[in-house]
Amino acid sequence: MRGEATVLHADLDAFYASVEQRDKPTLRGRPVIVGGGVVLAASYEAKARGVRTAMGGRQARELCPDAVVVPPRMDAYSAASRDVFAIFRDTTPLVEGLSIDEAFLEVGGLRRIAGTPEQVAVRLRERVRAEVGLAISVGVARTKFLAKVASAVSKPDGLLVVEPDREQAFLLPLPVERLWGVGQVTAEKLHRLGINTVGQLAELEEATAERLLGRATGAHLHALARLRDPRPVDTTRRRGSIGSQRALGNRPRSAEELDLILTQIVDRLARRLRDGGRVCRTVVLRLRFGDYAKVTRSRTLGSPSDRTALLVQVARGLLAAAQPEIAERGITLIGISLSQLGRADSIQPELPIDWGDGTRLDTVLDAVRDRFGATSVSRAAQLGRDPGLSAPLLPEHE
To answer: Which residues does the annotation say bind Mg(2+) (predicted)?
Structure first.
């Protein structure tokens, strides 16, 4: 037997929508959509009617006209996430967070004090339900990849253990879309080649998969299809970048709207930098046009920074340079990544040290938001605007 199933992948179910149903009993059992212009999350009642994340609000309401549409409450979701992650870390010190609502946990060393991995998973789910009021699905397997697939298969509100001697029987019949890294484009390419299941991909030679899908993608997916995933749960790795993006739907957006959304994204990310004692050196603008083609534009700073005003200025410059293409092709998604992260306390300040108004303003605003909440103070441009424009932080990415 190749090791033991000791990796847990824990994933909260329909997270944003579940928090809304938890906090508002009248929404329980009803289809709930979070976000008006674009669907940020949908309850399982809405998903059963065909509503999906990132779908346009109009299409979602046509599919589910009796859905209750609520604006996002990022503070509530962040608080729920903190409560759940506290339970994760109380379960085991070996926790690798993937996003606001999911994590890997290594529990192989807990057998003598806490029981088998399955028993640990059962208690974890019970605690999240009792202490936070949310349903969470858990997959247990020998590798991170299989644990993640198992949690997805077990949804909603499930627990699935894949023992090493059942790995092939579990994985090979599944559709190729279950492989970590297979998106719509890759899935369509595989289907055109007559490859619909993981088992069919596993039957290919690695060189053939690389030739059909590209060297890196082909090697990665072929390895997963053949149950090769040596990555341990990593509790020490620092993220190389943080990012947030917002789907915009298909309607035209004015330059003022895009500037507002961009400013909100950068404002939140810059605060994340300061909260984590980090600075960034590169600002990356991510765009998806009306024809769904994606582009990135970036600028590297002369010295690392966590200054909101500076990062907003750089992001605006990148957006301004892209405006002619946006006007011609339309835009359906905008995002910002802050990369080449470093520790703020390891940066040698330039002389003369800049103690200007921007630094003081950032410090004051952070203190106000820490005490009174993230929405307690806003930029003047945001006053009177739809709170749904506030871009949700998506999972950190490298």
So the answer is: 11, 101
